[in-house]
Amino acid sequence: MNHILILGGGKSSTFLIDYLADTCESKNRFLTLADLDAKAAAAKLQNRSNTAAVSLDIQDEPSRKKLISEADVVISMLPAFMHPIVARDCLELGKHFFSASYESDEMKSMKENIEQKGLFFLNECGLDPGIDHMSAMKVIHEAHDKGEKITSFKSFCGGLLSPQSESNPWKYKFTWNPRNVVLAGQGTSRYIEKGDLKFVPYHQLFKRLETVNFPGLGDFDGYPNRDSLSYRKVYGLQEIPTMLRGTLRRAGYCKAWNVFIQLGMTDDSFVMEMPENSTLRQLMNAFLPYHKTLSVEEKLAELIPELDFPTFEKIQWLGFFSDRKLPKTKGSPAQILQAILETDWALEPEDRDMIVMQHQFEIEGVSGKKQILSSLVCLGKDATHTAMAQTVGLPLAIAVDLFLDGKIKLTGLHVPVVREIYLPILSHLETLGIKFVEKEIINPARPSQ
Amino acid sequence: MNHILILGGGKSSTFLIDYLADTCESKNRFLTLADLDAKAAAAKLQNRSNTAAVSLDIQDEPSRKKLISEADVVISMLPAFMHPIVARDCLELGKHFFSASYESDEMKSMKENIEQKGLFFLNECGLDPGIDHMSAMKVIHEAHDKGEKITSFKSFCGGLLSPQSESNPWKYKFTWNPRNVVLAGQGTSRYIEKGDLKFVPYHQLFKRLETVNFPGLGDFDGYPNRDSLSYRKVYGLQEIPTMLRGTLRRAGYCKAWNVFIQLGMTDDSFVMEMPENSTLRQLMNAFLPYHKTLSVEEKLAELIPELDFPTFEKIQWLGFFSDRKLPKTKGSPAQILQAILETDWALEPEDRDMIVMQHQFEIEGVSGKKQILSSLVCLGKDATHTAMAQTVGLPLAIAVDLFLDGKIKLTGLHVPVVREIYLPILSHLETLGIKFVEKEIINPARPSQ
């Protein structure tokens, strides 16, 4: 009997747990779900046969190691910094390891030992990273098999709201970690376009937009995301002239968010302290120059010449021109802004999230040029069964299932960019409704700029 | 016989050494100058009586402590991170300590011990910090003595070029550490204006300018410098509605420098690698969006709407629109930019530097409002006898001289904001030509905004 250990039973584990727990009896497996909160974990398992919930403080090394030693495969759904610790335990105790997080340098340093011990470690097998790799590699491998040359690859992904829940001017609410949303894009983003390296500082990032359209859903803003250059190697596209990975927001969001960036209100590098009982208006004024007669609105319009009405409306809707009290007066600007948004951008119980992903390829084939647009739209079912939980958890669950069924026979350290891993996972995801729609345009009249 | 030890005989020590060495014989003192390069140190001492040059690697603790143990007062002209190490030695060995650098938290942590041992530790006794404190405190104390209220204090300082050496469109060359010039202003600057706290992110800083005029020299740009708020306490002005410390550049410099900031070319947080033989034009293009037909110049004009001809000319003069090869293709953007500027902004042997400082006070007295403008202009004599070396070294030299003459009788940890320290130093500086010119405007018609 194979023994699966899942570490962490949070929101994004819902589908992962269900998928694996449902077949424990029929496939003669046992599933242990370990979480700080054993009661919540038990609730997720719903008394299914061959499953057990246990309480675990992940920092408690003896308990952690004992649990791992009893398992065959370990799935880490913990915060990213914990993965290397769990992976090291797995390496020591000879257990296979799965995660949906980035393959860290620390993980990479274990590569040889993993191979020597004949273990299988799979990272980046969630949504982004995960489904993005798999669906892109499918197109890339197919093109290469036909002797075609990929001249441009842009890939965009966003965790957003289902259209019926876009009930504020931002068309945005927090469907995942608010802090990550407030700090999104900090640092310098890098990509390559028509052979030219491009570097975008944070304060230019939310202006460097591409419009990305999803049929039936309309337009989204895509901005370049971190280091696209490093993916050239991952995808075997070292010589590609254009490679860009981007993040999606609803059209108009980026222009308004850029106001906060321009003012310095997303800064997380220092602690400010506003007087007690300060208002949102006063907070915004602290990031505007002093003027004898001009109002906050007028100074903002002067500082941000591109401030149009839809942008103004979004800022206004949050209360920045009103006497609404700050929920927090001391903290980094980013922390104070987050506290404000956590009220305004909170998900209502009836809200549903949405995952959108689009790959845009330009390919030179034997018979001419073509574009391939490959788009995924995944809608959440409810506040628990979110699109995020589906798209993060299911690829991982399927990978574990295939591995235990002997359908993935690899050993070593992997991300899902090889056919043996991604083909069966993508095909299972399709049966669960997570399916890319491909559109091919032969000899496009107007290639993308 | 009192024994003075100077650690570090670099460029900014020239006047300090001369001032103290000249009187060693008459005042029955001995001066040791310790530097990694004992020959250069000896050359600075010019065989004056009662002086000796020694070679010292400051990291060599036994040698360092031996030298310190033989001294009565120690002057640290070392890089800032070394001051606490030397100060700790002085505390241990019971020696007085002097520096021209900021009083660090580590230094503050020694406060009680310094007092207990009856020692005198003086920091921030150079130019900025140093002369700025002293000259400001003189005005502040005088106003407070008269029962006047200071409602606004803005203070600006710049290390620039003497007008006859302003021989390029930037009117700037490196008269001190090029790296500090390239990174100047990074972080978030803070000040208070008419009672409102103001926070300025780096990418807004070089737009938040005030024009500062020096009679006979013309206009300068002043931008807010780091944390002006903390100076309210230092200067005993906790309740002041307006307090701003700024850095000066020649008028027009900031607008052009801001182009580099906006593009991300002063970023020091990541390493980029341009292809071999890349040009300055290609480097600039890497920070601009791709466009099918627009040139680098056109894209720049589109990205920076306020790009006027004087700004364009400055960028062009550096070669950013030309095929000039990059002096360095790998490094942080800031490092690459610095390498370019080090050629173009190098001081010629005949170049002279200039220090400008201006305090702007608004004061409410019994008989109405007044403004006080207190301005200092100090010109360098030649490439060795720079204005920077004069204004950094002389206050420190005078402080040590006064202390050894028994004219400063304080103990404990100090910065020169008390009369007993600043009055005699300012009066000695005047005799050496370092003199503030004060202008008082009674009932100003147009108070500053």
Offer a concise description of the structure:
The structure is a homodimer of 449-residue chains. Chain A is an alpha/beta fold and 449 residues long.
CATH superfamily of the largest domain in chain A: Dihydrodipicolinate Reductase, domain 2
Strand content of chain A: 25-35%
CATH classification, class level of the largest domain in chain A: Alpha Beta
Main beta sheet of chain A: strand number and arrangement?
Answer: 7 strands, parallel
Low-confidence stretches of chain A: none
Q: Can you tell me the number of structural domains of chain A?
A: 3
- For this structure, the CATH topology of the largest domain in chain A is Dihydrodipicolinate Reductase, domain 2
Oligomer: homodimer
Radius of gyration of chain A: 24 Å
Major sheet: arrangement of strands of chain A: 3-2-1-4-5-6-17
What is the element layout, followed by pairings?
Two copies of one chain form a homodimer.
Chain A lengths: L1 E6 L6 H8 L7 E7 L2 H8 L5 E5 L5 H9 L3 E4 L6 H11 L2 E4 L5 H4 L2 H6 L3 E3 L8 H15 L3 E13 L16 H6 L4 E6 L2 E6 H4 L4 E5 L3 E7 L6 H4 L7 E9 L2 H11 L8 E2 L6 H7 L9 H8 L5 H9 L12 E2 L1 H12 L8 E13 L2 E12 L7 H18 L7 E3 L4 H13 L5 E6 L7
Parallel strand pairs in A: 1-2, 1-4, 2-3, 4-5, 5-6, 6-17, 7-12
Antiparallel strand pairs in A: 7-15, 8-9, 10-11, 11-12, 13-14, 15-16, 16-18
Helix pairs in contact in A: 1-16, 3-4, 7-17, 11-14, 16-17
